[in-house]
Amino acid sequence: MTLTLQIVQFVLIISILVILHEMGHFFPAKYFKTKVEKFYLFFDVKFSLFKKKIGDTEYGIGWLPLGGYVKIAGMIDESMDTEQMKQEPQPWEFRSKPAWQRLIIMTGGVIVNFLLAWVIYTMLLFSNGDTYIPSDSLKYGIVVDSIGEQLGLKTGDQILMVDDKKTRKFNEAVLDIILGDEVTVKRDGREITVPLSDEGKETVFATQGKNFLGYRSKAIIAKVQPNSVAEKAGLMPGDEIKGVNGVDTQYWDEFRSKIGASANQKLDISVLRNGSTEHLELIVPDEGIIGIELDLTDLRVTDNYNFFEAIPAGYKRTIQVLTDQIRQFKVIFNTKTGAYKQVKGPIGIVELMSPTWDWVYFLNFMAMFSVWLAFLNILPIPALDGGHVMFLLYEMISGRKPSEKVLETGQIIGFVILMGLMAVVFGNDIWNIIKKFL
Fold this sequence. Notes:
By secondary structure, this protein is of the alpha+beta class. The protein has helices spanning 2-31, 82-85, 99-128, 146-150, 170-179, 198-206, 229-233, 252-260, 307-332, 346-352, 359-378, 385-398, 404-437; strands spanning 36-54, 57-72, 130-132, 142-144, 158-162, 165-166, 182-187, 190-195, 213-215, 221-224, 240-244, 247-248, 266-273, 276-283, 292-294, 301-303. The chain has three domains: 10-126 and 369-436, no CATH class; 131-214 and 299-366, no CATH class; 220-295, Pdz3 Domain. The longest helix has 34 residues, at 404-437.
C-alpha cells in the first residue's frame, strides 16, 4: 500500500508538471496563430492509450511515462518530421513566425515551471510560515556519525560558516557542507576551519549519508506511542531523560545510542518530571525501538509571513532551490566524489515520496521538481527547449537562420546525449535495487 501511494504521488506530480509545461508552449503558439498538431501527456511511441482530435490538435496520453510534448507544425523537434519541412513554409507554421515569437513559444514551458514553483512556495509560506532549525545558533551543537567524522566534523561542533558564507538554516548548512570546500566550526571554544575532502564526500554519497550530520538536542519526550515499551514503563510526554543506569545522558543522541546497544537488557531510566527526578525501568526490545518521539520545540523557529511578504519570500525560495540545483552539478561532475552514482531516475524518485499522504510535502516536492524541470529544460542541449533557444538566439544575434541540416543534426546529437543520461540514471536505479538484495 505504501509503495502504491508513493507511485500515485509521483505520477500525479509528473502529470501536473508536464501538462502545465506543455501548456506553456501550447498557449503562446495558439496566440501567435501557430498550428499545434499534437498535445500529449507521456510519449506515444507506436501507439497511445487515449487520443481525441479537437480542431487542429490531437490530444492524447501515451504509454511511456517519460514526460510529454506538443508537436508544433513547421518545427524540427524530437519527431524528426523532415517531410513536412520539405514543403513550402505556410503562414501558420512555426518556421514562418518572427524569431521573437518563436523564442516566447520555446521558453513558455520553462517560465510556467518557474512561476508554478514561485506560486506554490508563496502560498505555503503564507499559510504555514517557514519552520526551521537555525544552524548558526544551535544550543547544543551538531551530532555526527563515523562518516561525519571522516569529513572532519565532531559531535558538539557549532557550524559558523561554509565557504566563508554564514548558513541560517540547518538543512541548508547540511547541503552547503556536501557541496562546499570547507566549513568553519566552533569547537571547545575555538574557531577552526575544516577542509571538506572529496574522499569524505565519496563516503557520504556511497552510503547515502542519511545520518552523517544532525543537530544535538535535549532528550525531551514529545509523544509516547500507545502500547509501546515506553508507555508500559511509565514514560510520559514532557519527561526529560537525564540518565541511563546511573550514567548522565542529557542529549538525545546519547540516549538513542544507549538504547540501540541494549537490546533485551533492563535499563533504569531517570527522568525529570515536574521538577523532580523519577526512576523508571524498561526492557529494550530486539529492534531497539521503545516508542517515543523527540520534542524539538526549544530548537525550532517559525517565520510567519502575510500575503504581501510571502510573495518576495516565495521568489527567494525558488531562486535558492534553483541555485542549489545548479551547485549540485559541481559535485556530480567531480568523479572523485562518486556523486554521479547516486543520481536518481523515476524509480529512485518514487522512494523519496512520502509513505503517507502529506499535502505540504506533496506541494513542496512539486515546487522543487518544477524548478528542476525548468533548469533541465533550459540547458543548451539540442532536443531540449534550451537547445531551440540556443539556435534562436544565434539567429537573432547573427540575423541568419541555422540551416535545416544543422537543426536536424543538433536534434540527433541532443537525442543521443539525453538517451545516454537516461541510461545512467536508470542504471543507477536498477543497481541500487540489486544492492538491496546482495
